Amino acid sequence: MAVLITGIGWVNGAGAGQGRERPFRFLQAEGPIQIPTGEVLSFPLLRFGRMDTYSRLGVAAIGLALKDAGLLEWSDVREISVVASTVYGCLETDEAYYETVLPQGGKLASPHLFSHTLSNTFLGEGAIQFGLSGAAFVLHEPALKGTGALHLAFLAVGQGERPAALAGVCDSGPRPHLGLAGRTRAGALFFVLQQEGKNVRPPYGSLTRERDRLYFNGEEILDLFRLAETCATNNG
Question: 90: which residues sit within 8 A by CB, 6+ positions away?
Fold first, then answer.
């Protein structure tokens, strides 16, 4: 069974985008990220403004990837899984929450921040926003590459467990005081994987697996950022 890449969406320092926009240019840039609004995304997001930065990055990129694959609109929930890789997850939000716990013995602890102190919270938000009912979980990686998430999403689709799955990376960026610069950068990037079918949009290419390694159009995948660049080169 062929596993196809049918959608790509991202939010990073260079802006927000999706693969079928022309010209298709996947760019990466350091620096602060302007979180896109509903107008920029061209679709509404409930409670988006109340989410933490990490969650907004992930939900926006998931929505853009689904839109790119033609899967944004829904009336009934779909069996679509989401797997994400991260280095720091919601650590920035955890620290912000802890700062509200310190004064007055925790009496001022923020319930709003507390609700976002799990690294997989944004996947629940995305499932609600986009009608996804498949498995959803986050993997920790020592450096942000996303290959673990891609492997699991590939298996879910390739083994027939799900007709579609999303795989990606999401991180709110390095924490300077931890001295771990270079392992990640702020942003989110997601791919939609689907089985072949009559309602599937023309794919960017196909994925194959040999000896626990994934290949895109015959080239080994080393990280998801390079995969996006390859898709842009092939389909620009």
Answer: 52, 54, 55, 116, 117, 118, 119, 121, 172
Q: Round to whole Å and give the CA distance between 29 and 16.
A: 11
**Cα separation, 163 vs 190, whole angstroms:** 17
Q: What is the pLDDT of residue 182?
A: 61
SS (H, E, C) the chain: CCEEEEEEEEEECCEEEECCCCCCCCCCCCCCCCCCCHHHHCCCCCCHHHCCHHHHHHHHHHHHHHHHCCCCCCCCCECEEEEEEECCCCHHHHHHHHHHHCHHHHCCCCHHHHCCCCCCHHHHHHHHHHCECCCEEEEECCCCCCHHHHHHHHHHHHCCCCCEEEEEEEECCCCHHHCCCCCCCCEEEEEEEEECCCCCCCCCEEEEEECCEEEECCEECCCHHHHHHHHHHHHC
Q: pLDDT (tens digit, 9 = 90+) per residue, 70-112?
A: 999 999 999 999 999 999 898 888 888 898 999 887 788 899 8
| Complete domains list, the chain, with CATH | 9-214 (3.40.47.10)
Phi-psi region of 212 (alpha: psi -120 to 50; beta: other; left: phi over 0): left
Locate 166 and state its tokens.
């999303």
What's the pTM? 0.93
Alpha carbon distance 171, 153 (integer Å)? 19
Neighbours of 75 (CB within 10 A): 6
